[in-house]
Design brief:
The complex is a heterodimer. Chain A is mainly α. Chain A has 8 helices and no strands. The longest helix of chain A has 30 residues. In chain B, strand 1 and strand 2 form a beta hairpin. Classes of the chains: A mainly alpha, B mainly alpha. Chain A: This is Membrane protein.
Chain lengths: 201, 264
């Protein structure tokens, strides 16, 4: 296993140094490009949190949370206004990935799967109230919304139907992103992991 | 992103009426319009808010980005009307029947209210999107006292993205030349992303390291930093900030009071 970027005891320590200041925009850019690639290949996943995963793994949960937050704010103010409110979900994802990585839950392929499940639950729990407030419980993805309609038609509570709609989409997305991030992180040069990780210690 | 980039490239545009409104006032307007639309269940009022925000957009300019955001949301609102019209839990009164399928009044009204709120947010944000540039936002935010580190975080993304997109196209072209074929199955597609993503991520992070070292060498941490002037003269900015913030506080307070009253 590669050396972790951060010590376990220091995961919540955060300094806005020049290294983190350049890592966070890069992470937002990676989110954007990964999403564009997924859309270009017509994949049934978003991949729009890959940069947030990598920022959390490299510089800790706070850096990851800030990356996620800025990602949605910038995306919301330039492309899709409603994305801004989902900044809360991105913060949750950043924190969850950072903590799980620091606790060693990104050290093997089997552990990555468990991490992806936990992150998907975090994402769905935070997104569900937002989906209910803004979209009556829908997610905007056709097959997820078909499931939502089926559940509501069978008198399932809106909150439960919305959670299931969000979770089935999130689980697929977060498993793909978690494995991509795990694989990419292992390919990163050691000097890079140290450069961004040491900066927070 | 396109609108912001185009606006930033045009260094000395002729000032229009919306250039006299500062970026923070525009952001507070988004907040106030959103709070106003969430504070009512009356469709007529919602229609009024949509008209005002749409008029603001028409009087400034309509961009392809705003139209794209509107198109996606209108499609989602349409599906919401169908799903809620058919299955909303409080459905009782049949509003219309299409091909033997009943659509209920309560569900349609509920979906229309939610849809109107989304439209108000998109239209008011659209006004901000098409009338401000990256450099104007950065300079104004620094003038108002926001730390330049935070501004760098927010604004540098807009400059890094075009560079990343160029890198991505280069890598994609290189992979195609090496004989990467179009993929059909999901697994093939996911695997085909790796040869593009890995070099792209490593190159991006490498450039971040270089940028970080450059920033340190250029004295980015220098505490004696002077904020740059914005290209426009803003009218009544402090008054607008205070008034719009007061409206936002009143609307939030009213909402909280209404919720408390429900339990009393």
């Amino acid at each position: 296993m590669k050396m972790q970027g951060l010590n376990h005891a220091n995961i919540w320590r955060f300094k806005l140094t020049t290294a983190t200041m350049t890592l966070i925009p890069a992470a937002v850019g990676i989110n954007y490009v990964a999403k564009a690639l997924a859309e270009g290949l017509k994949l049934p996943v978003w991949l729009g949190s890959l940069g947030t995963f990598l920022a959390s793994m490299l510089a800790g949960p706070v850096a990851g949370a800030i990356s996620g937050f800025i990602n949605n704010v910038i995306y919301g103010l330039t492309l899709s206004p409603i994305s801004t409110v989902y900044a809360i979900t991105s913060i949750g994802i950043g924190v969850a990935v950072g903590v799980l990585h620091a606790k060693g839950w990104f050290s093997s392929a089997s552990r990555v799967f468990v991490s992806a499940l936990i992150i998907a639950i975090v994402s769905a729990v935070i997104s569900t109230p937002l989906n209910v407030i803004f979209w009556g419980g829908q997610t905007g993805i056709a097959w997820g919304d078909s499931l939502f309609a089926l559940l509501v038609a069978n008198h399932a509570p809106v909150w439960l139907a919305s959670f299931i709609d969000e979770f089935v989409l999130d689980i697929l997305d977060k498993v793909c992103v978690a494995y991509l991030a795990f694989f990419i992180y292992r390919q990163l040069p050691q000097r890079m992991v140290r450069f961004f990780g040491d900066d927070q210690q | 992103m396109t609108d912001q980039r185009i606006l930033s490239e045009n260094s000395h545009p002729k000032p229009r009426w919306y250039n006299t409104i500062d970026p923070i006032t525009k952001l507070l307007m988004i907040l106030d319009f959103s709070l106003l639309s969430f504070s009512t269940h009356r469709l007529l009022l919602e229609a009024g808010f949509i008209s005002v925000t749409f008029l603001l957009l028409l009087l400034s300019k309509v961009s392809p980005t705003t139209l794209k955001a509107l198109g996606f949301s209108l499609f989602l609102i349409l599906t919401m009307l169908v799903i809620q019209g058919l299955f909303y839990s409080k459905n009782q009164v049949v509003l219309l029947t299409i091909l033997g399928v009943n659509f209920y009044k309560e569900g349609i009204i509920y979906a229309a209210t939610l849809g109107s709120r989304v439209l108000v947010i998109i239209l008011s944000t659209g006004f901000f999107m098409v009338t401000t540039s990256i450099s104007e936002n950065a300079k104004y935010l620094e003038q108002t006292g926001l730390s330049y580190r935070t501004i760098y975080l927010l604004m540098s993304v807009c400059y890094i993205l075009p560079e990343m997109m160029r890198n991505m196209h280069k890598i994609q072209m290189a992979q195609k030349v090496r004989g990467t074929n179009p993929q059909k199955t999901l697994m093939q597609k996911l695997k085909s992303i790796l040869p593009v993503l890995i070099p792209l991520v490593i190159k991006t992070l490498d450039q971040s390291m270089e940028r970080s070292i450059s920033l340190q060498l250029r004295g980015f941490n220098n505490p004696k930093r002077r904020a740059l002037a914005t290209p426009y003269h803003y009218r009544l900015a402090p008054l607008a900030h205070i008034s719009l913030t007061m409206i936002a506080i009143l609307l939030i307070g009213w909402q909280i009071w209404s919720k408390i009253n429900l339990f009393l």
